[in-house]
Each structure stands twice: as structure tokens, then as C-alpha cells.
């Protein structure tokens, strides 16, 4: 994707010609093992966690943080009265530190979905540290592995392990094997990311607890409320809000762009994750600075990045080409239509029916009511009472060719009538169907069909 504000256009930027192949016989299968199998094979798997070995397999630092934060929140509710100024500031600071993760750790550093000025990067580095989720360097490395190895054993928060594992378990338990590799060479060269990584233990207390204590202290004399509410309670909400991106967003909602892996779109997930809930889109088009693309999608992170651009603090906001997004949308719609189509019973084709000569047709029509329409022979024996045009016309054409009469000679039958008529096929006239391949003769219900790629050349009639 080119880094211009105009964006990458797959049609304008399309290469003019292909390369000449020097080895026309080479096959992909000869290249070797897949990156996944290879990565898996070089990573030793630790024995599974059981109740017996659980204590030795807990990540005690994370257990301490993730249980200590809610405990301190409860303590705060018991000992510190909540001033309204502190409440408003806590909500505001929830968004500040949440955006540090969503706009900073996620969309800027993990996915390079826009360029940020140094001022914005410093702000996001500070705000992100206040969310107590590790350094941006560490977070983005894990997140890139999550995208590269989604739903596999090399995905650090593999949703296939269940809701609790994806939400919390992956942090509380020591991983069974090293997560998959991801290229973070760009982050190694980013001095702000590296500075935050090196001095993370300075950033963390400053952003998570000292700053949210000092502001209420200085402006409305509420250091205790600031410490507990803007510090701990706010942090608990930021934690579980961002954890929902790994759990909720991989379990609940729709899949409008792709069906292969677990990511899903849901408004509720977007509401609790500052806009990250359109996760099916995000996993398909991760370099897009938007996660909710429509104007009505709840995506405050997108609005924040857009506003930063208006203020001159961000540039090169990337958008995935709509032409390519539409291919995903169309594929998913066609899959639904294909499922609907598969539930419908269709007429027999010329391949399923006996081929009958004209003389044999005329002869057999004396025994049973057969009518030829469009090269197919139809048995109308149970249809006399249901023919809206009456019995007379049907009887008149028994043993004859009623094609012209059916298609306007006597009455221009409706599409519905044509579809129904085709269900009464019992034979095909010798030499009749090639002539009948004209568009009018194919039942209208089959003129447009959803077909698998290898079915496209099969006959409809
Ligand atoms: Zn995900
Ligand atoms: Zn992502």
C-alpha cells in the first residue's frame, strides 16, 4: 500500500504486464513447508497445564496486576467518596489511555495505518503506558504475531482456546510455546518506541497512577479519589475494554468480509473497545486506519486519528481500496445466496432425461398428456386443474410443439409459470435442446446462478 493520502488504487496502480516465466513447470508445492508448519516445528511445546502443575505455570506478575487492580478498585469504592469532577476526569482519562492502545499501540505501531508527528507519538507513548499492557514494542510484536498466525497455536491470544483464554488466560498462564515470529524491524528503528520500551518502568507509574492522582489533587483537591478512581478503577475498565478485542471480537457478531477465521463485527464490541469492534474488517484490511468504515460505525479511534490529521499531527492515513473491500463483501453475500440456492429444488437437466425422437413423442403423447416446449417434453397430467389459462389450451397442444404458443403465441407466460413448467420435464426431444439453448428457453430462475468456480461451464438445461 502506498503511503500517500490519495491512497493505494488497485486499478490505477495496476502493473502493466506480468513477468516472463523462466520455469513454467515450477509448482508452489515444491517451494517447501508452509511458514506455519515450519514455525511450529522449531518451537518446543511445554507439557499441558494441569491442576497439579498450575502453581508453577502461573505468570505471577500478571496474576498480581490483574487481580490487584480490581481489588484496589473495590477498596477505593469503600474508602474514597467519588467527587463528580473526579468521575468526569476518570472517564476522560479512560479514553486517553484507551486511545494510547487503540490509536497508538494498535493502529500506529502494530499496523502502520498512518504517520504520526513526534508530538503525537510521545503523547501516545505516554497514554499507552497508562493502560498498563506492556511497552508498545512488546505489545505490537505480539499483535503482529496474532494477525500472522490468527487462530493457531502460534497466536499469542488464540481465540480457539476459548473466551477466557483469549480474554485473560493467555496473560495469567505461562505460554506453552514461543509465539510466532513477526517482523518488527521498523519498531526497532523508532526512537520513541524504543525509549518507551527502555524506560517503561518510569512511564508506567507516571501515566497510570501519578498523573491521574496529581490532576484531581491540584485542580479540585481530591488526590485519594484521583488515585483510586482515575488510577485503578479507570485502569480496570481500560484493561477489560482492550481485552475484549481478543475475546469478544473473535466470538460474537457477523462476518461480512471473510469467513475463514474467527474475527467478527459487532456494535457492542465496538462500544466497549473504543471502536475496535469491527474486527472482521480489521483482520482482512489491517492497514486501514479505520476499523468501522461507515460514517455511522462507532469508531472513536478513527475520529481521533482523523482529527489529529486536521490538526497537522497525523498524515498518510491509509484506507484499503474500496474495490478490493467490495470483493470480500460480494463473496460473503454470494455464499449466503449459494446456501439459499442449494435449498431450492431445480428442474431436471437434459443430462438426466431420456432423449426421445419426434415420432416416439407423438406416439407416447397418445398414452399420457405430454407437451413439447422449448425442446423439453413435459407431462401435464396432474396440472389440468391448476393451469390458470384453463384446460382447453393444454389439451390442444398434447403431442405438439407448444414452444411458440407458450412464449407469446397464445400467451406470454410469466417467469413463475416458466419455472414451474420446467419442473414437469420428463424427456428431451432428439435434436431439440441445442435449438432450445436460446435465452428464453432457460428457466428464468436459472438465468443467474451462484456457481463454484469449477461449475461455471456446466450446462443449466
Ligand atoms: Zn484479532
Ligand atoms: Zn490488529
UniProtKB/TrEMBL annotation:
It catalyses: octadecanoyl-CoA + 2 Fe(II)-[cytochrome b5] + O2 + 2 H(+) = (9Z)-octadecenoyl-CoA + 2 Fe(III)-[cytochrome b5] + 2 H2O. Its EC number is 1.14.19.1. Pfam families: Cyt-b5, FA_desaturase. Keywords: Electron transport, Fatty acid biosynthesis, Fatty acid metabolism, Heme, Iron, Lipid biosynthesis, Lipid metabolism, Membrane, Metal-binding, Oxidoreductase, Transmembrane, Transmembrane helix, Transport. It is a multi-pass membrane protein. Residues 1-20 are annotated as: Disordered. Its cofactor is Fe(2+). InterPro entries: Acyl-CoA_deSatase_haem/ster-bd (IPR009160), Acyl-CoA_DS (IPR015876), Cyt_B5-like_heme/steroid-bd (IPR001199), Cyt_B5-like_heme/steroid_sf (IPR036400), FA_desaturase_dom (IPR005804). GO terms for cellular component: endoplasmic reticulum membrane. It is found in: Membrane. The chain crosses the membrane at residues 60-80, 87-106, 118-140, 199-220. Expected to bind 2 Fe(2+) ions per subunit. Its main location: membrane. Residues 366-430 form the Cytochrome b5 heme-binding domain. One of its GO terms (molecular function) is stearoyl-CoA 9-desaturase activity. GO terms for biological process: unsaturated fatty acid biosynthetic process. Stearoyl-CoA desaturase that utilizes O(2) and electrons from reduced cytochrome b5 to introduce the first double bond into saturated fatty acyl-CoA substrates. PANTHER family: ACYL-COA DESATURASE (PTHR11351), DESATURASE 1, ISOFORM A-RELATED (PTHR11351:SF31). Belongs to the fatty acid desaturase type 1 family. This is Acyl-CoA desaturase.
Amino acid at each position: 500500500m502506498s503511503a500517500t493520502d490519495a491512497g493505494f488504487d488497485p486499478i490505477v496502480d495496476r502493473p502493466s504486464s506480468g513477468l516472463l516465466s523462466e520455469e513454467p513447470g515450477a509448482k508452489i508445492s515444491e517451494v517447501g513447508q508452509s511458514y506455519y508448519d515450519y514455525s511450529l516445528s522449531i518451537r518446543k511445546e511445554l507439557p499441558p497445564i494441569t491442576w497439579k502443575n498450575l502453581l508453577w505455570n502461573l505468570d505471577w506478575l500478571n496474576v498480581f496486576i490483574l487481580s490487584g487492580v480490581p481489588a484496589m478498585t473495590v477498596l477505593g469504592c469503600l474508602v474514597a467518596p467519588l467527587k463528580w469532577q473526579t468521575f468526569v476526569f476518570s472517564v476522560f482519562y479512560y479514553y486517553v489511555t484507551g486511545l494510547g492502545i487503540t490509536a497508538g499501540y494498535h493502529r500506529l505501531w502494530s499496523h502502520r495505518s498512518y504517520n504520526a508527528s513526534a508530538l503525537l507519538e510521545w503523547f501516545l507513548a505516554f497514554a499507552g503506558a497508562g493502560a498498563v499492557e506492556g511497552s508498545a514494542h512488546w505489545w505490537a510484536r505480539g499483535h503482529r504475531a496474532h494477525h500472522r498466525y490468527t487462530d493457531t497455536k502460534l497466536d499469542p491470544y488464540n481465540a480457539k482456546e476459548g473466551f477466557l483464554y483469549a480474554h485473560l488466560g493467555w496473560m495469567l498462564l505461562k505460554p506453552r510455546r514461543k509465539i510466532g515470529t513477526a517482523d518488527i524491524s521498523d519498531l526497532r528503528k523508532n526512537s520513541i518506541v524504543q525509549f518507551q520500551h527502555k524506560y517503561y518502568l518510569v512511564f508506567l507509574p507516571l501515566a497510570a497512577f501519578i498523573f491521574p492522582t496529581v490532576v484531581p489533587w491540584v485542580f479540585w483537591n481530591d488526590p485519594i479519589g484521583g488515585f483510586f478512581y482515575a488510577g485503578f478503577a479507570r485502569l480496570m475498565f481500560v484493561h477489560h475494554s482492550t481485552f475484549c478485542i481478543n475475546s469478544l471480537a473473535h466470538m460474537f457478531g457477523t462476518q461480512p468480509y471473510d469467513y475463514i477465521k474467527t474475527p467478527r463485527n459487532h456494535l457492542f464490541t465496538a462500544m466497549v473497545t473504543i471502536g475496535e469492534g469491527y474486527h472482521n474488517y480489521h483482520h482482512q484490511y489491517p492497514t486501514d486506519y479505520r476499523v468501522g468504515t461507515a460514517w455511522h460505525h462507532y469508531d472513536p479511534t478513527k475520529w481521533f486519528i482523523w482529527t489529529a490529521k486536521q490538526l497537522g499531527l497525523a498524515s498518510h492515513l491509509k484506507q484499503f481500496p474500496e474495490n478490493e473491500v467490495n470483493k470480500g463483501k460480494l463473496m460473503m453475500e454470494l455464499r449466503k445466496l449459494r446456501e439459499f440456492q442449494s435449498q431450492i429444488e431445480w428442474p431436471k437437466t437434459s443430462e438426466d432425461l431420456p432423449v426421445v425422437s419426434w415420432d416416439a413423442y407423438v406416439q407416447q403423447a397418445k398414452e399420457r398428456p405430454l407437451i413439447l416446449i422449448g425442446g423439453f417434453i413435459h407431462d401435464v397430467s396432474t396440472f389440468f386443474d391448476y393451469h390458470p389459462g384453463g384446460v382447453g389450451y393444454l389439451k390442444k397442444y398434447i403431442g405438439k410443439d407448444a414452444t411458440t404458443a407458450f412464449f407469446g403465441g397464445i400467451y406470454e407466460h410469466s417467469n413463475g409459470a416458466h419455472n414451474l413448467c420446467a419442473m414437469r420435464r420428463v424427456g428431451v426431444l432428439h435434436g431439440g435442446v441445442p435449438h432450445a439453448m436460446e435465452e428464453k428457453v432457460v428457466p428464468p430462475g436459472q438465468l443467474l446462478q451462484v456457481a463454484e468456480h469449477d461449475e461455471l461451464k456446466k450446462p443449466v438445461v
